[in-house]
Amino acid sequence: MIDFVLIGSLGAVLLYVWVWLPESGISPRFYPRIVTRAIGGVAVMAVVLALRVLHPGVTVDFSFGTQAVLVAIGTMAGLGIGVYEARTLIQAEILEARNEELKRTEERLEEAVGDLEDSNDRLEQFAYAASHDLQEPLRMVTSYLRLIENRYGDELDDDCTEFIEFAVDGADRMRAMIDGLLDYSRVETQGDPFETVDLDAVLDDVLTDLQFKIDETDTEISREPLPAVDGDRRQFQQLFQNLVSNAIDYSGDEPPRIHVSATPEGDDVTIAVRDEGVGIDADDTDRIFDIFQRLHSSEEQAGSGLGLALCKRIVERHDGEIDVESEPGVGSTFAVTLPLRTDPPAPAERRRSARPTET
């Protein structure tokens, strides 16, 4: 038979089923009557009774003797002893069952983590093979095309020369995509150990590297002081280089105007790179951070389609977030939120170089 019973401190209604034990020689349908009589002070024979308790997510079998109930016949003490023994056993069995389930869950999690690590290793091996093994054939294609152009240039008509340039440009773009894929795949596995990084000094280096491009496009860059954070200096340099370079590339017909700022927000800081360029449609603001996503054709704008995807992966490695707010024809603001380092670096830690005027 099936009844409901409240077992002491478990604090929940447990569904239990009386279970037949061959050694008792008594049908389970008599079990409730035996227990009731024993509790009421009526003498009963000493037998072992069995229950199967159905707790959410757990099935527990336990048994107890009527002697436990009869220790003090006719008093609640006897009932207390019997219920206490049952309750203790139930609690122990449920705890053991939960521990077993937790152990199985941990084993499944460890297996999933191992599979993920194996998958990442295979991805890195593929990216390395793509970068190393495919680069040489691409270089060979480019070299022979240039050789044809140089050796037979006088004999080639304009169409043929144009075709060669298209082929060389395609090979160069493929090589850039392969290099970008390698960088993307190694953000986690080949990154440098974290250290205190002065973002002002990082931006100095980036602007120095981009100086020719800045001068050529008549770019105007204003900036505010940036904080120090913990992270991978080389990856932060990649991050700033991609964001500033993108702001220059997508400036439209006007000379680029870029502003770099920092806003503390509790334990974080938001670094914003704002431009006054062509902007991005609202429907495209999410997918621009996906790998190999381009909003413009290669004829309109050079690039591998990996720059912003790489930025996102770098930021995520540093427990940060990257987002963009944009309006077509007005400009875009790329916001990078990072954990803020509490103690500023000493002056000796800061590396300075020539920079545009700070605002």
Annotation keywords:
His_kinase_dom; Heat Shock Protein 90; 11 strands; 359 residues; disordered N terminus; alpha+beta; elongated; disordered C terminus; 4-stranded antiparallel beta sheet; single chain; 8 helices; 3 domains
Give a brief description.
This protein is α+β, with helices and mostly antiparallel strands and about 350 residues long. The chain is built from eight helices and eleven strands.
Task: Explain what the structure shows.
This protein is of the alpha+beta class. The protein folds into three domains: 2-105, no CATH class; 117-185; 195-349, Heat Shock Protein 90 (2-Layer Sandwich), CATH 3.30.565. 46% of the residues lie in helices and 20% in strands. It is built from eight helices and eleven strands. Strands 6-8-9-11-10 form a five-stranded mixed beta sheet. Strand 1 (2-6) and strand 2 form a beta hairpin. Helix 7 packs antiparallel against helix 8. The longest helix has 77 residues, at 76-152. It is elongated, with a radius of gyration of 36 Å. The model is unreliable at 1-14, 69-86, 297-301 and 344-359 (pLDDT under 50).
